[in-house]
Amino acid sequence: MMRAYVDTNILPMDDVLSKLRMIADFVDVADMSGQNVVDMLTSSWRDYEDATQHRSAVDEQADCIVTRNKKDFKASTLPVLSPVEFLAR
Q: Is residue 85 in a domain?
């Protein structure tokens, strides 16, 4: 799934995957399967993927959501940060 969102015009896919593996060493990956995926089909959020990401983050007790599209998470109950804001913390 991640590969669909990676812009390989910036870096070759092998480099992207290597960097993602490094990131995976210090972050927890939230479960985005099971009942959350089904529940979000009837969510009031406008975007299904945003709803699913938010629900998974809440269930995993995440500190925040990091996204380049903060406007998509206006209904979030968690703080929403841009990547720059997150790294500045």
A: no
